[in-house]
C-alpha cells in the first residue's frame, strides 16, 4: 500500500546551515550532502541563490551545485531530487545556469517578515514569484513554494490563516507542485497548526499539495508533525540533528530534527525509506564538525547506545 509512505525533505544543507555564525567550509557542506545521499532520503535542499550580503553562509551556492551536478546525471543521482532556494529573478537565473532541476520560492504570510526577509511586500513577492515560475517551468524546472509564519510572525504577531490560504492557492496556481507551510520561529502550538492547515484544506487544497515545515524552539515541532499527519499531510521538512536557527527571532531554533521525526514515524508504522541509524551517525558527525550540541533527542539516545 502507498498510504503508509511519508516523504522527508532534508533541508539541513540549506536551512540548517544558513544561520551558522562562522562560514562552514564548502567541503563540509559537500560531505554533508554526500553522507545524506547514503541514508535513503530522496529530497535534499542543498543551498540558496540569495544575496551574499544578506546571507553570506550561502555564497558558495555555485560550488555546491557543481558538486551536486557531479552525481546528478545518470544513475549516480540515485533518484534523489536536489533543490535550491531562489528569492528573485537574479537568483533564479544563477540557479538555472548552475543546472538545477528544482527551485523553491519563499514568501511570508505576514508583511513584517516579508519586508525583513526578502525586502518586499506580500503582493510584490507574489508578482515576482509568478514571473519566476513561468520562466522555471518553461525550462522544465520544478518549483516548490514556501510560506513562512503560518501561525505567528516574530514582527507582526499572530497571523490570520486567510493570508496563508491565499498564498497557498496563488502559489499552486502559478505552478508550484507543492507548498511547504512553515512555522518559521517554532512557536506554534498544535491547535494553531490544526487551525491553519484546516483552513487551507477547507479551501479545497488537496493534502498532497502540502508539506509542513516546523522549527523546534519550544518543543512543539514533533506534536505539530502529528497534527499535520492526522490531517493527511505526508511530506515533512527536517534537518539532521535539528540544525539551524533564525536570524530574525532571538532564541529561535533549527528545524525539527530528522532523527526525531523518523523515530516517531517509523515507530508508528510509517515508511520513509530512510535509515535512522545512518541519519543519527550524520547528526553526531555534523554536530562535532560544527562544535554544537546535537539538537536531536532521538539522535543523542541512539548515539549513547
Ligand atoms: P535587495 O537588497 O532588495 O535586492 O534584497 P536588490 O534587488 O535591490 O539588489 C541588491 C544587491 O543584491 C545587488 O547587488 C544585487 O545584484 C544583489 P549590488 O548591485 O548592490 O552589488 N542581489 C543578488 N545577489 C545574488 N543573488 C541574488 C541577488 N538578488 C539581488 N539572488 C533579496 C532582496 C531577495 C535579494 C534579499 O533580501 C535576499 O537575498 N533575501 C534572502 C534572505 C534569505 O535567504 N532568508 C533565508 C531563507 S528563507 C527561510 O529560511 C524560511 C524557510 O526556511 C521557511 C521557514 O522556515 O519559514 C524557507
Ligand atoms: Mg525554515
TrEMBL record:
It catalyses: (3S)-3-hydroxy-3-methylglutaryl-CoA = acetoacetate + acetyl-CoA. GO terms for molecular function: hydroxymethylglutaryl-CoA lyase activity; metal ion binding. Keywords: Lyase, Metal-binding. Transmembrane segments: none annotated. It is an enzyme of class 4 (lyase). Its EC number is 4.1.3.4. GO terms for biological process: ketone body biosynthetic process; L-leucine catabolic process. Residues 6-280 form the Pyruvate carboxyltransferase domain. Pathway: Metabolic intermediate metabolism; (S)-3-hydroxy-3-methylglutaryl-CoA degradation; acetoacetate from (S)-3-hydroxy-3-methylglutaryl-CoA: step 1/1. Belongs to the HMG-CoA lyase family. This is hydroxymethylglutaryl-CoA lyase.
Amino acid at each position: 500500500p502507498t498510504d503508509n509512505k511519508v516523504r522527508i525533505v532534508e533541508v539541513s544543507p540549506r536551512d540548517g546551515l544558513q544561520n551558522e555564525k562562522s562560514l562552514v567550509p564548502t567541503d563540509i557542506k559537500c560531505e554533508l550532502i554526500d553522507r545524506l545521499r547514503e541514508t535513503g532520503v530522496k529530497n535534499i535542499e542543498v543551498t540558496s541563490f540569495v544575496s551574499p550580503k544578506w546571507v553570506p553562509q550561502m555564497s558558495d551556492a555555485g560550488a555546491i551545485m557543481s558538486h551536486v551536478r557531479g552525481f546528478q546525471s545518470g544513475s549516480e543521482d540515485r533518484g534523489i531530487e536536489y533543490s535550491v532556494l531562489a528569492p528573485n529573478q537574479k537568483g533564479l537565473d544563477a540557479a538555472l545556469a548552475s543546472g538545477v532541476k528544482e527551485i523553491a520560492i519563499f514568501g511570508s504570510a505576514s508583511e513584517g517578515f516579508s519586508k525583513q526577509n526578502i525586502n518586499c511586500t506580500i503582493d510584490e513577492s507574489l508578482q515576482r514569484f509568478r514571473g519566476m515560475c513561468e520562466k522555471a517551468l518553461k525550462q522544465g524546472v520544478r518549483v516548490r513554494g514556501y510560506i513562512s509564519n503560518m501561525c505567528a510572525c516574530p514582527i507582526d504577531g499572530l497571523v490570520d490563516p486567510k493570508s496563508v490560504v491565499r498564498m497557498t492557492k496563488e502559489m499552486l496556481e502559478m505552478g508550484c507542485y507543492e507548498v511547504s507551510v512553515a512555522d518559521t520561529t517554532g512557536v506554534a502550538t498544535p491547535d494553531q497548526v490544526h487551525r491553519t492547515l484546516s483552513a487551507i484544506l477547507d479551501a479545497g487544497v488537496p493534502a498532497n499539495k502540502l508539506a509542513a515545515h516546523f522549527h523546534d524552539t519550544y518543543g512543539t515541532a514533533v506534536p505539530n508533525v502529528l497534527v499535520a499527519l492526522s490531517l493527511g499531510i505526508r511530506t515533512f521538512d527536517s534537518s539532521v540533528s535539528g540544525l539551524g536557527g533564525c536570524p530574525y527571532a532571538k532564541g529561535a531554533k533549527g528545524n525539527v530534527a530528522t532523527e526525531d521525526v523518523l523515530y516517531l514515524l517509523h515507530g508508528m508504522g510509517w515508511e520513509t525509506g530512510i535509515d535512522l541509524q545512518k541519519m543519527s551517525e550524520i547528526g553526531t558527525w555534523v554536530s562535532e564538525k560544527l562544535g554544537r550540541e546535537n539538537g536531536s533527542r532521538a539522535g543523542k539516545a541512539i548515539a549513547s547506545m
